[in-house]
């Protein structure tokens, strides 16, 4: 094997890779945030809503969790324009990731809702807690302890495995930037080894940050490794 690594070509374009890493982080955060909102609404409906709405939520969750994220994004990017609906590449990826994350987070958050025992809510009512106080002192701590570690791990999954799908429809996130740059000089090994290292750093920093948030805000221990 006479392959000679030339990492100099990577460092010359390191700024572009950092721009891709920043876009990856942004897509991950917004997809996760949007997924949380959808998950909260759908989990509430699944737990307390009427039967027709629960049926709709079940259909959404079953469809999304049983089809690949790539197919969902391809549907948004290639399929909807046939119906006259066009979004930018970035919007297609973000909408697809939000819908995908929302379905999985619905199941995670519902487990949190079910962990709240009725007798504890009744105890809060007996003590004269308002609805806001019940949410603040009873419901949120229970849900946080039950689901926060799973949510933290899911954020990492969305950021690493979810956003890289965007490269397949031309979004210049981290993987997309690596494909673009390496296709110019064919230094695939150098670019993708550096990009893999950047992903490790991104997920490590995100895991540390989420573990600290869980410890300080929710009093939840999150295992990083």
TrEMBL record:
GO terms for molecular function: transmembrane transporter activity. GO terms for cellular component: ATP-binding cassette (ABC) transporter complex. Its main location: membrane. It is a multi-pass membrane protein. It is found in: Cell inner membrane; Cell membrane. Keywords: Amino-acid transport, Cell membrane, Membrane, Transmembrane, Transmembrane helix, Transport. It comes from the Bacteria. The chain crosses the membrane at residues 20-43, 55-75, 87-109, 146-171, 191-218. The lineage of its organism: Bacteria, Pseudomonadati, Pseudomonadota, Alphaproteobacteria, Rhodobacterales. Pfam families: BPD_transp_1. This is Amino acid ABC transporter permease. Belongs to the binding-protein-dependent transport system permease family. HisMQ subfamily. Residues 21-210 form the ABC transmembrane type-1 domain. The keyword Manganese does not apply. One of its GO terms (biological process) is amino acid transport.
